[in-house]
Amino acid sequence: MSFQDIHFSSGTVQDAPPYKFHRLKSVSYDECKTTADWLLSNTQVRPIVGIVCGSGLGGLAEMIKDPQIFKYSDIPNFPRSTVHGHAGRLVFGTLKGKPCVCMQGRFHLYEGYPIQKITLPMRVFKLMGVETMIMTNAAGGLNQDYKVGDIMVIKDHINMPGFAGVNPLCGPNDDRFGLRFPCMSDAYDRKLRQLAHDVAAELGFSEFVREGVYCVLGGPSFETIAECRMLHMLGADAVGMSTVHEVIVARHTGMRCFALSLISNRAVMDYDSHEKANHEEVLETGRLRAEQMEKLVSTIVAQLEHNINN
């Protein structure tokens, strides 16, 4: 038995993926097209906007009008959510007049899926006609000026797993998806970021809407104090376990990306502190800030066409 074949028992967790070390396996164009075609044949919605809801932020999907809902478990080739606070549903409909598809729950490295499987929805959305991806997440605040409940517009990211070769674009490149070596210096659309600040000012949210750099780690363990200090020194303002790999694949396919982090807890930076990061705090902060987050995103969506044309 090779090291790669070792399986880890995870008890009787329902719908959990197999926990093992996966050999590199790219997601094929045909696999993504099969999923996209299945969805298109089962809904009349032709989405141009895709939304990914982070931990505790699934309420965004409740704002979609005339919703048509698919469980991840019913969609061909789709992974399943295994994390509390992620409903595991794909919601089609309209938001502020724009045809949308919304993921109520995303996938993470720590769930045991290959990184190419985690990001499969981005390729599927592209094949369905999505032009703009809007992503939300809950994150720990590294910037000492940030408060719990602040919303951070992501202007750039640090792909920490990428330093060890963990990147969703590893493996053979299919030119039908995108270039072999895509640029990431403009990963987060400048016009959409400015639109977010304009909308925040209109809504009176500017006091708690920030802009900064997001760092992704693999999880599921939260960061140590030493790790938080290091990431802060590297220029990260917030840290989490998602979003970045989705953005890399979305940009690879040519979609525009915009992302928001809800600062759900302050990263512990002091060895004398008795604070401890926990998932329950993340979900509670999401619940308390949900209304403003939903208002901000929906207003941005309402103004997308104007922003694109100007």
UniProtKB/TrEMBL annotation:
Keyword Secreted: no
Binding positions for a purine D-ribonucleoside per the UniProt entry: 223, 265
Alphabetized GO MF terms: purine-nucleoside phosphorylase activity
Span of domain Nucleoside phosphorylase: 49-301
Cellular component terms (Gene Ontology): cytoplasm
Record-linked Pfam families: PNP_UDP_1 (PF01048)
PROSITE patterns the UniProt entry points to: PNP_MTAP_2
Entry keyword Nucleotide-binding: no
GO biological process terms, semicolon-separated: purine ribonucleoside salvage
Catalytic reaction annotation: guanosine + phosphate = alpha-D-ribose 1-phosphate + guanine; inosine + phosphate = alpha-D-ribose 1-phosphate + hypoxanthine; 2'-deoxyinosine + phosphate = 2-deoxy-alpha-D-ribose 1-phosphate + hypoxanthine; 2'-deoxyguanosine + phosphate = 2-deoxy-alpha-D-ribose 1-phosphate + guanine
Residues reported in the UniProt entry to bind phosphate: 55, 86, 106-108, 138, 242
Pathway given in the UniProt record: Purine metabolism; purine nucleoside salvage
E.C. number(s) listed in UniProt: 2.4.2.1
Keywords linked to the UniProt accession: Glycosyltransferase, Purine salvage, Transferase
Stated family: Belongs to the PNP/MTAP phosphorylase family.
Complexes and interactors: Homotrimer.
Protein name: Purine nucleoside phosphorylase
Lineage, top ranks: Eukaryota, Metazoa, Chordata, Craniata, Vertebrata
